Amino acid sequence: MEKEKVLSEKTPFFESKKGIIFTGATVGIIALILVFLGNPKNMGFCIACFERDIAGALGFHRAEIVQYIRPEIIGLILGAFITALAGKEFQSKGGSSPITRFFLGIAVMVGALMFLGCPLRMVLRIGGGDLNAIVGLAGFAAGIGIGIVFLNKGFSLKRNYKTSTFDGYVMPIAAVGLFILLIAAPAFIFFSKEGPASQHAPIAIALVCGLIVGALAQKTRLCMVGGIRDQIMFKQNYLLLGFIAIIVVSAVGNFTLGNFKLGFAEQPVAHTDGLWNFLGMVLVGWGSVLLGGCPLRQLILSGEGNSDSAVTVFGMIVGAAVAHNFALASSGKGPTGNGQIAVLICLAFLAVLSAANSDLLKKNN
Fold first, then answer.
1. Mean pLDDT value across residues 148-152
2. How high is the mean pLDDT of the chain?
3. What are phi and psi of 306, to 5 degrees?
4. Cα–Cα dist 195/332, whole Å
5. Fewest Cβ atoms closer than 10 Å to its Cβ: which of 31, 73, 177, 203?
6. 3-state helix, strand, coil in the chain (%, to 5)
């Protein structure tokens, strides 16, 4: 008993269940604040959508309604960077199948833009009453389940290695560079005058919100895919509690503010095609398991010095550009034919990749 008491006393707050619940609740509250101050409804945070907006602002695609350098993304990276440095957890490392991770990033983005949101926005949409996101959650869980099958078959993208210290600083430096471009607003940077990207909270507040969430996510290892994966594989609900806390707090907040709207139809920045909402999130869940974390987690890891995650983030940004340049992204009217084909191609890619990097083929040879 005495030993258990000592171990309990030594457990840091942010590694405890109370810590992850606090983090999830804080993310939910901050998401509500960002929407109240100007972000699109049910989009206090959306890693995929915000990276898509950044791709547009840099001119990688020319969809005029989704072009803006989102301070939240900058804050997430820098918040994780600062906290990792302070906690002596910053470490430059990489070399774990970077080109594969780049294309996985593209695939995950294709799935997210089919659904119109990353896993974090999925839970925020659920908290807003969007039943299409429940369909997305079912697909997300199914995709995670498929990924777990391959993890149990030995899937691995191999280990990473320690790299030069500067290598780990590249992503935080890039984030600072983006912030300078946002403030300076030179002529070659594009800013939407209408549509979702024209709706945003004040820059300073959005940046601070990103910094807070980035710091908390770094300390608690918050990950949308990790919550379901760990529950299935290890019967551990630590990360899942953060996932649930976001839904509960955002639902209560939206109901209080009059923004809760239960149903499928006329939800903000969403469509009602159940099949492709499901399949899009299957792709996101499966791809995220192979990557070792959801899009939010990849941003946080890139701030900690992980260049493999940085490569994944760049893959997602390129994926966003490809999606809009080739009409793969969905809209409120529904998915496009090109997008449906792209999702099926990406699912086939994941199947081949999963088999090739597991013991499945080895045992058959």
1. 97
2. 95
3. -85, 105
4. 12
5. 177
6. 70, 0, 30
